[in-house]
# Entry
Amino acid sequence: MRLPLALFLSASAMVMPVLAQQANSPIDGDQYHIVELEEGVLRIDRQTGDISECNETQNGWVCRLTADDRLAYEAEINRLDAEVDRLEEELAIARDALGYDGRDLSLVPDPDSVRERLDLPTDEELDAVMDTAEEVMRRFFGMVEDLRNDLQSERAQ
# Structure
């Protein structure tokens, strides 16, 4: 009984390195290079360079694309390019709205021209409004003080 078991084990020991060598060195013309891992295999696409991690599940083998820094960088560059395009469009719209004629490169318009376009009050008009508001507030608080004095005098009687 020990001799057949020993023959089986020695034959298995010779076959396993051959199988491992076949898995680690694919045949020319194959699209994928397979590398064995403890928990599954890595599948490397020879044409695109994509790397997938494959694991055996109850439903068979499942391969998931691994995160590739190059792909992440390219995706971020594409996102930033789109953001730059969007911001350039917004800038063009804002320049049109402000009447940008191309002479001045500053993005901040002259305050007087903005005030004229928006029909804002002048500083003198604002001062007059504030003076009026101050007068109203003084009169209001004077009335409150008078009411307080009247209530105190009624309670004292």
